[in-house]
Amino acid sequence: MKHRNWVNIALLGMTAVTPAWAVSLAATAPAEPMPADTAQPATPMAIETWAAGSASLVPLMAADMQAGRFETIDAPSTGGTPGKAVDDVAFVRQATVSGRKEVAAARDALPQLKTPELKRIAEMLVNDHGDANAKLAKIAATKGWPVPAPQAAAAPATGTANSDFDAKWTAEMIAGHEKSIALYRAQAQGGEDKELREYARDTLPTIEHHLAELRSLQK
To answer: In the chain, which residues have pLDDT < 50?
Structure first.
């Protein structure tokens, strides 16, 4: 009987102690860590372990950043005139060269042209383009813009005047005047310099008149 009582007492004691032990253990033991990924954690790479190619990215990135900072700064203009737009200087050069070619082509063709009307147009081209070239050279001189040096004159065409020469010369003059009109229109509409825009606007009707005359005689 005493033995059975001791067993009961022991069982009651275990029942009373077990919850307290369990609570104490849960409160004092550290939390069970969550299962971690099997991959190694990412750690910064020591500079000494970088490959040569990786290390070279640092100065390259720095250079790119410097280039990005300064690429928006206005570059100095070309053509020998600081602060002058390239378009205006380029127009002076192209218009001077084309104007001289028109004068030379018309002057050299005069002895070869057979059609009287074409001779009249050739004389008109010599006078009008000569005047326009002189005005353009004056504008360029006052602003200090460079003007192409004159080219050596080519030998004039020789031979008997004929209709084939007239037709060929007319076609060449038409093509040249179409290019000149496009050049002068662009300058008159979008040139930066006011005086040069006015020159292009004033000269454009004369060139357009030349083209209309040449087209009317084209065969």
So the answer is: 1-86
